[in-house]
Automatic annotation (TrEMBL):
Coiled coil: none annotated. Keywords: Glycoprotein, Golgi apparatus, Membrane, Signal-anchor, Transferase, Transmembrane, Transmembrane helix. This is Galactose-3-O-sulfotransferase 2-like. The keyword Transmembrane helix applies. One of its GO terms (cellular component) is Golgi membrane. Belongs to the galactose-3-O-sulfotransferase family. It is found in: Golgi apparatus membrane. It is a single-pass type II membrane protein. The chain crosses the membrane at residues 12-32. GO terms for biological process: glycolipid biosynthetic process.
Amino acid sequence: MRIHLLKRNIKLVILVAAIFVTMCYLAGIYGLKPQNSQLSDYELVPMYGGHRENNEKPSPFDDYDDPFSSSLITDLKVYNKVKGNKCLEQRDFVFIKTMKCATQTMVQIFRRYGYRRHLNFVLPRGGNIYLGWPYIPELQDYRPSKRPFNALAEHSVYNETVMKSIMPKTTHYVTIIRKPFSQFKSSFHYFNVANISRMKTTKDDISEYLHHLDMYETFYKTPAASATRYCIPDEFSVTKNLLSHCLGMPLGFPAGRENITSQSGKVAEYIEMLDRNFMLVMIMEYFHESLVLLKRLMCWSMEDIMYHTVNVGQYSYKDKTPDPENLKIYKNWSGVDFLLYDHFNQSFWKKVKHQGDDFFDEVKTFNDIHTRVSKYCSNLEEGENSMTILATAFSDHFVVTKEYCVMLGVDLLTFLKTRMEREEGWVNQDTGNKGPKRGC
Ligand SMILES: *[C@@H]1O[C@H](CO)[C@@H](O)[C@H](O)[C@H]1NC(C)=O
Ligand SMILES: *[C@@H]1O[C@H](CO)[C@@H](O)[C@H](O)[C@H]1NC(C)=O
Ligand SMILES: *[C@@H]1O[C@H](CO)[C@@H](O)[C@H](O)[C@H]1NC(C)=O
Ligand SMILES: *[C@@H]1O[C@H](CO)[C@@H](O)[C@H](O)[C@H]1NC(C)=O
Ligand SMILES: *[C@@H]1O[C@H](CO)[C@@H](O)[C@H](O)[C@H]1NC(C)=O
């Protein structure tokens, strides 16, 4: 029995690996020669976004070996169970991926959601992973599509005008933020700030940095350090009001852009605008509460908000409570992010309150299911072929398969790109951009 199961598993892994290699290969071919015959095929692809009625039942996967075929959802309208009632799933969204706020985990949820429903994603060109970030997105940053877009989840700076011009009216905007000092420590580590700003080894890099901000910031941002900063352009700060920058606040980058950093009235106004335009600003400190709120507001299922933790940085100063002196300096340095955080933490809890008492029952239910799914998916060799999660007051029953577990872990960006190349005959071209570095 064991051996039999093991064989099945090996087969599954080999299958997924083989498909992956094939897809990379296809991506290579499609990148080299135009496949004009593919151009007409897009008409066959259904849109599930709700802004195009499509009653026919096309089969978009006829000539396409989808690695996750048994996980695909092809129903045009799906009603999920939210607070004991049924409501219609919302399928158009923009997720603004702020830096170092569990966004890798979140983006996997959004990609998987859209992949399974064949949504049309705004995707970076070529091998890029950013939609122009840290610049406001422009056409040179994404792959245009012949179909309307439903979804945007890759790294992008929010800009009301640009987003409205790309996305349908029915789009729901979502983002996630975290306590600014924790976010700073995580960015400091991730962007290799100590090393790039030529800091000598110290006992407490964070403290050393904060006590000589101008000096280290200057080093970090110079063209001389450009090669070690990879995706970060000259003159861009990765430690100062980064959350607000990602949400599109004009803070003086790139050169020539308005800088409202010290105009508290304008900052407050901008935050109010975000509050109006975003359906939900998730808070990393309350991650499961945030996911359940997302589920309820979008009318998604429990299965949709499941996740597998990825991209968790390990660094020694991670869990330390901030030294009051350091916190004070940082608050002075990156004050706009503190205003942003306080505002959205307040509005988050207002939204939770609005949900009623059973909200926390649902969070508890989600915690339990998440624990079971994580355990099952971490031990695929030993376990049964699938696991059934029974219906609860907040969710319908669903079956967790090994394929679903694999999908929780793989980088679906590659799959989304390949699918678009297949279906739209998209060919990567040099955009001829001669401007500043927008290479990631
Ligand atoms: C949004 O983008 C447009 C076009 O690039 C620009 O004119 C506008 O200033 C931007 N808005 C903000 C708030 O930066
Ligand atoms: C710091 O940078 C130097 C050279 O720039 C490199 O050799 C070294 O490995 C880096 N250290 C870390 C921890 O990244
Ligand atoms: C914007 O203004 C603030 C102070 O008002 C300044 O500290 C910051 O460096 C400016 N940003 C840019 C990118 O120049
Ligand atoms: C706050 O920042 C300003 C300049 O940005 C600086 O002159 C001042 O010394 C800082 N105050 C503290 C307490 O760090
Ligand atoms: C967020 O707001 C709640 C409710 O006002 C408060 O109790 C909590 O301390 C705040 N959380 C953080 C991390 O500031």
